[in-house]
């Protein structure tokens, strides 16, 4: 069990950078697509979906570590993780109301998720 928990912890640490980088890329691309029609491609939405799904994978890994391994986690680290989940849900729920500004919505959401990820990583490294 300790080996599995150690492996999951390693994946959780490594995958945090996937979450950060993918949401930064998706957010930056979406913001650029708001101003440049040529950047509005289906691949932007594929990246956005994958980047936002990575938030759920990361939260699942973190939850597994807390529940199965009994790890103590700084309260703010958990807050940032769950705030990221809520942010994805809020962005998804507002997609119809903000249809005219959809690229801005998902651009800023991606950058917000990136920021939460960076904050969680640095908070965890100083704990």
Describe the structure.
With 127 residues, the chain is mainly alpha-helical. The chain has one domain: Four Helix Bundle (Hemerythrin (Met), subunit A), CATH 1.20.120. 83% of the residues lie in helices and 0% in strands. The protein has four helices and no strands. Helix 1 (2-35) runs antiparallel to helix 4 and helix 3 runs antiparallel to helix 4. The protein is elongated and about 50 Å long. It starts with a helix and ends with a helix.
How would the blueprint of this fold be written?
Layout: H1 2-35, H2 42-69, H3 75-93, H4 102-125
Short description:
The protein contains 4 helices and no strands.
pLDDT averaged residue by residue: 93
Terminal-residue CA separation: 24 Å
Sequence stretches where pLDDT stays below 50 over 5 or more residues: none
Query: Structural class, judged by helices and strands?
Result: mainly alpha
User: The CATH topology, please?
Assistant: Four Helix Bundle (Hemerythrin (Met), subunit A)
| Alpha plus pi helix count | 4
CATH architecture: Up-down Bundle
CATH class: Mainly Alpha
Helical content band: over 70%
Largest sheet composition: none
Categorize the overall geometry: elongated
Give me the count of strands: 0
Strand content: under 5%
Radius of gyration: 16 Å
């Amino acid at each position: 069990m300790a080996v599995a928990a150690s492996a999951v912890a390693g994946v959780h640490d490594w995958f945090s950078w996937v979450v950060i980088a993918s949401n930064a890329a998706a957010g930056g691309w979406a913001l650029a697509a708001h101003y440049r029609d040529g950047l509005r491609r289906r691949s932007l939405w594929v990246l956005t979906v994958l980047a936002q799904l990575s938030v759920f994978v990361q939260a699942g890994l973190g939850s597994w570590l807390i529940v199965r391994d009994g790890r103590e986690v700084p309260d703010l680290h958990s807050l940032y993780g769950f705030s990221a989940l809520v942010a994805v849900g809020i962005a998804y729920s507002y997609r119809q109301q903000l249809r005219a500004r959809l690229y801005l919505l998902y651009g800023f959401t991606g950058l917000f998720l990136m920021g939460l990820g960076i904050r969680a990583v640095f908070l965890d490294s100083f704990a």
